[in-house]
Amino acid sequence: MSIRVIGTGFGRTGTDSMREALTILGFGPCHHMSEVMAKEEQKRLWRALAKGAAPDWNALFSGYNSCMDWPSAHYWPELIKAYPDARVILTWRSPESWWESFEKTILAGIGQIEDQDALGLTLIASQVFAGQPHDRAHAIAVYEANVAAVMATVPRERLLVHRLGDGWEPLCAHLGVPVPDEAYPNRNNTKEFRAAFSLK
Questions:
Q1: Are the C-beta atoms of 184 and 164 separated by less than 8 Å?
Q2: Angle between helices 95-104 and 136-153 (to 10 degrees)
Q3: What is the total count of domains within the chain?
Q4: 16: part of which helix (H) or strand (E)?
Q5: Strands of the 5-7 sheet, one edge to the other
Q6: Rounded to whole angstroms, how far apart are CA atoms 36 and 119?
Q7: pLDDT tens, position by position, 120-139
Q8: In CATH, what number is assigned to the domain containing residue 178?
Q9: How many CB atoms within 10 Å of residue 172?
């Protein structure tokens, strides 16, 4: 088993819906932050990587065919080289709407983390956002810089920019599979996220 699809978009850009979509299309299981949170071995491996351990992608993605969301999205420059045949998907929404969702969900969750080794702190807050996840202008600049880097780095024929609401057609065309006879998934909206993590 090897990674066939790599997600490069930040959390809160439709990554959980895309995770479900890829599973429906036969590209699952799909790695996602929810997998890390649910499995102790995943936590151990990814926390070690975030602290500077040499990456063993085969171990980190053992049992997975695709990856979306953090933590893997932070490492996309390495992953597109490690898996040169994988298709790449940049999940995207406008920077302002991304911040609005991020602030109410992931950022609120980071504020409640007590485990200092948690990836929300060691990776997302400290590395992705350089210790300034609460700074709106800084966070949006980081988001925009990631989008620009993906667009400038990944060959156009290998990359799909999938915007919220784009649905099945561009995704299936990019992956070379037929459009399924069911609605495109709509998962993990702000209300559902806050309820799942008991955010007030």
A1: no
A2: 120
A3: 1
A4: helix 15-24
A5: 30-31, 66-67, 5-7, 87-92, 159-163
A6: 9
A7: 999 999 999 999 999 999 99
A8: 3.40.50.300
A9: 15
pTM for the full model?
0.92
Residue from 93, 66, 91 nearest 8 by CA: 91
List beta partners, residue 160. Answer: 89
Domain that holds residue 132: 5-196
Each residue of 50-59: pLDDT tens digit?
A: 999 999 999 9
Long-range contact pairs involving 164-168 (C-beta distance under 8 Å, separation at least 24)? 164/13, 164/14, 164/91, 164/92, 164/93, 164/97, 168/21
First vs last C-alpha separation in the chain: 40
**Could you give the angle at which helices 168-175 and 15-24 cross, rounded to 10 degrees?**
60
Structure tokens at 70: 């953090």
